[in-house]
Each structure stands twice: as C-alpha cells, then as structure tokens.
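Hey,
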Amino acid sequence: MTESRRKLGSVALLLFCVAGIYASYLTQGVVNEHLAIKRYGDQQERFRNLEALNGAQAVTCFIWAGIILQALLLTGRVSSSDLAHWYDYWQAGITNCVGPACGMFALKNITYSAQVLAKSCKMVPVMLMGVVLHGKRYTVLEYVCMTLIGLGVAAFAQKGSSKVMGRLASPNPLLGYTLCFVNLAFDGYTNAAQDHINERHRKNSPIHMMCWMNFWTALYYGLYMLASGSGVELVSFCARHPDALVDIILFCLCGAVGQLFIFFTIKTFGALVNTLVCTTRKFFNILLSVLWNGNPLLSNQWVGVAMVFTGLVVQGLMKSKNKHSKRKAE
C-alpha cells in the first residue's frame, strides 16, 4: 500500500512538472510569436527589438532565482562552500546572450514554427562534429534519427504558406535558418561550459547556476542595448504601446517560472525525462502557432514536423533505454 502510494505520488509530481513546463512555455511561445508578427497602434508599428526579450527575461530570472537562492542559503538547504563562484559564469554568459539573440533575430526572417523546428535538431550538428572532428561512431538507429530530423527540416523549409510568410518583418529563409543553426552552435558551447563548471563544483546548485548565468546574460544584453540605442527604442515603444509592455512582462514571467520547473524536473526525474517533456512541448508550440495564431502549415511542412519529432522521440527513448541498461549492468 505504501509503495503504491509512493508511485502514485511520483506520477502526480511528474504530471505537475509537465503541466508547469507546458503552461509556461506554450504561453511564452504564443506571446513570442505575437510580438514578432503583430502590428501595434494606428501606425501599425512592429516590435523590432525582439532580442531585447531575452535580456528582459534574464533580468526577471536573475531576480527570481536570486530570491530563491538566498532563501535556500538562509535555511541551510544549500551551503555556500559547495557553490561555484559568481564570476565562473562570465564566459558561458556571453554565448548564452549571443546564441538566443540570433534565434530571436531569425523570427524576422522565418516563422515561429520553422524556428522551433530548426532549433530542435541539435543532435544533427553534434553527431556530424563528433564523426568529423573526433572520429566517433554511432549506432544505425542514431544515424536513422539524425537523417529523419535533417530531412524533416529540409521538407519543412522546402515550401511555406505565402500568407504566413507575408506576416514576417523581413522574409528570408536562408538567413533565418542560418541564424537558428548559429544559435545551436552557441548553445552547444554554453552547455559544455556549464558542464565544466558542474564538474569542478560537484555540489553546485541549479538555482545558483540559474541566478548567475542570468546575471551575466542580463549584463551583456544591457551593455548591448545601451551601446546600440535599442534600449531607448524599447522604452519608447512600450510607452507608445502599453499592450506590448504587458506582452513582454508575460513573456518574462513565463520564462522565469518555466526555468524553475525545468530545473526541478531534472533534479527529481533526470535529464532524459526533461528532454522528452520539452521535445513533446515543442510540437504543441507548433500546433498552437497554427490554431491560436492562425499560421497554417502546408502538407510538406506537416510531413517535416512528423519526421523531426519522430526522430527526436525515438532518440530520447533510445537514450532512456541505454541508461536503464547501464544501471542494470552496474
């Protein structure tokens, strides 16, 4: 009876985490696309500072995580001696700033659905670089998954709805997809840098990482916006269109809450469960773009979406099976 209650509690907690991630990032996706394509006011102005969304989100996440981190330190649940130094994150903060900014810039050139799909195929460059640079070998199923994902993105990009493309600020698929792949490359370095920090500080807290990663990211975005004048443009735009400010605040809050759910899911259920949850969530992001924001997909694009997510889900299940086999062997 006790065991069944424990399992039931674990399932309920997992469903709570899934609901939190879905609610946060599905809402954020709708708002993100809304800001990218909407025209505000009588002058039909576009929101042109999309990259500023990441900076605003970083400030919100830094404050949010900072409050939680201080509470954990005061209650003794986290020891300051176990943590990395706040300045250890400065390099990862650079790529965490530049990469997502490229992804945001891409929304001026390609649709939100295309951006989500392109950013989902991280395993393709990782495997290619592994083979070419390090001579790594993968299983046949991994090569099949990589091929499915690559061909799926190609099928999606082959032809899109002229109605949807017409809503973009500056339609340019080649530039948009290139920016997404640059985003993936920088994300790869960011992940590697974070892993290196965690290797040197084995008991480092995820909340500590969330706090100081966002601090450096916010700092770099702040310097960029100050130097480029985009910060003044952003404030001026929000003053003219208060409804845009509401969208930006909602975007930031969703990101902050979503990050906490992701960290909690990884800590409680492991990275593989989190990967599967986030992978399926991206499919619903695309579905919401079609149904909620009125951006229909053509038949070749639905085929591309199906190919990419089949490859991603099979890859996730394969990793889960391999990890389970290793545990049994131990």
